[in-house]
Amino acid sequence: MESNFTNDHNYKYQKAKDKVEAIKGFYGNLLAYCIVIPILAYINYNTTSFPWAIFPALGWGFGVIMNGLYAFGYNPLFGKKWEERKIKEYMQES
Predict the structure, then answer these.
(1) pLDDT tens for each residue of 62-84
(2) What is the value of pTM for the model shown?
(3) Alpha-carbon dihedral angle through residues 46, 47, 48, 52, given to the nearest 10 degrees
(4) How far is CA 83 from CA 2, 14, 70, 89, 93, in A?
(5) Which residues of 49-68 are buried (b: 16+ CB within 10 A; e: fewer)?
(6) What is the pLDDT of residues 31-67, one digit of tens each?
(7) Which pLDDT tens digit goes with each residue over 17-35?
(8) CB contact set of 60 (below 8 Å; sequence gap of 6+)
(9) What would the DSSP string read from start to end of 31-85?
(10) Given CA atoms 35, 63, 49, 47 in this order, what sign does their dihedral have?
(11) Does position 3 have pLDDT exceeding 70, yes or no?
(12) Is the pLDDT of residue 2 over 60?
């Protein structure tokens, strides 16, 4: 009985730790985006009339959005119910 409780506790702890790491990574990515993109826009504004800074802003911005969706557990394509159903399915196969 103790072993089962310990395994469950370790699993929950690891899952919570992974979630915190994902959120921490998201905020780091967001902070870097908010620092680098304005610098690129400033360089772009002062060097050429072609708005090339929009490309990294859009590309990286999409990445930041996807990272945030993952970190906070929102997945419009494969929701939580789908994930739990698949986990149960694969556990039954074993």
Answers:
(1) 999 999 998 988 877 776 677 78
(2) 0.73
(3) -90
(4) 28, 18, 13, 10, 16
(5) eeeebeeebeebeeebeebb
(6) 999 999 999 999 999 999 999 999 999 999 999 999 9
(7) 999 999 999 999 999 999 9
(8) 33, 36, 37
(9) HHHHHHHHHHHHHHHHH-SS-TTHHHHHHHHHHHHHHHHHHTT--SSS-HHHHHH
(10) positive
(11) no
(12) no
Please say whether the beta carbons of 41 and 53 come within 8 A: yes
For the chain, how long is the longest CA-to-CA vector?
A: 70
DSSP symbol at 5: H
Residue type at position 50: F
Residue whose entry in the numeric block shows the structure tokens 């999409």: 62
Residue 76, both tokens: 């419009």
